[in-house]
Design a protein that fits this description.
By secondary structure, the chain is mostly beta strands. It is built from one helix and 18 strands. It is elongated. It starts with 9 loop residues before the first strand and ends in a 5-residue tail after the last strand.
């Protein structure tokens, strides 16, 4: 059975609780465990998985299908992504732009739901200094990369993926304006509980 991402371009790769691939038609696929070109990625090596899936950015999906046992196979210009069922948790979840979903549940049971009649409105995140105590809840790379925080703020930049483990799920301990540049172009300085410091020049004023 096919998913409606064939001939669609990979626009972003995201990591929050799961790894996700987002396509330019608004659809996305989230994985709790996935294999990309022989590398198995799960909860223990998500940052390695983020780097591996980032190589898909800009590629077009050649094929996307799942079988009756719940195995999902995606191909991208020679690269292969496979998600197999897990015993105790969901393995993958496809969400179309209209909100309809297909989910591979524990043991490989595949279920689908139509688009909701009344979709829930989600408040957009905004480019702003995060508040003290806010937690980094999502990293994304690709088109419109961002670091997103639990207070609804985000910083619009492509975080070096090797630093992802120092940023995701860390809380903000300091959030301020840098003093060393002209007031009209002052950078934002965000320090996290890991000790990692982000120097950021805002795109909007």
């Amino acid at each position: 059975m096919k998913l409606a991402v064939v001939q669609k371009r990979v626009s972003r790769i995201l990591l929050d609780f799961d790894l996700s691939i987002e396509f330019d038609n608004g659809a996305s696929i989230a994985f709790s465990e996935v294999m990309i070109d022989g590398l198995i990625v799960d909860e223990d090596n998500q940052f390695e998985g983020l780097r591996a899936l980032a190589t898909l950015h800009g590629l077009v999906c050649d094929d996307a299908d799942y079988d009756e046992s719940g195995v999902l196979r995606l191909t991208f210009e020679g690269q292969t992504v496979v998600a197999s069922p897990r015993d105790e948790v969901e393995s993958w979840e496809y969400t179309a732009a209209d909100g309809s979903t297909v989910v591979c549940g524990p043991g490989g049971a595949v279920e689908s739901w139509p688009a909701p009649e009344h979709p829930k409105s989600v408040a957009p995140t905004v480019e702003r200094l995060p508040s003290i105590g806010a937690t980094v809840v999502r990293l994304s790379t690709g088109d419109d990369p961002a670091v997103e925080f639990s207070d609804g703020t985000k910083l619009l930049f492509d975080l070096p993926l090797d630093a992802g483990y120092l940023v995701l799920r860390e809380s903000v301990t300091s959030s301020s304006l840098a003093d060393s540049v002209a007031a009209a172009q002052r950078d934002w300085v965000v320090e996290l509980s890991s000790g990692h410091v982000i120097f950021y020049r805002p795109r909007t004023t």
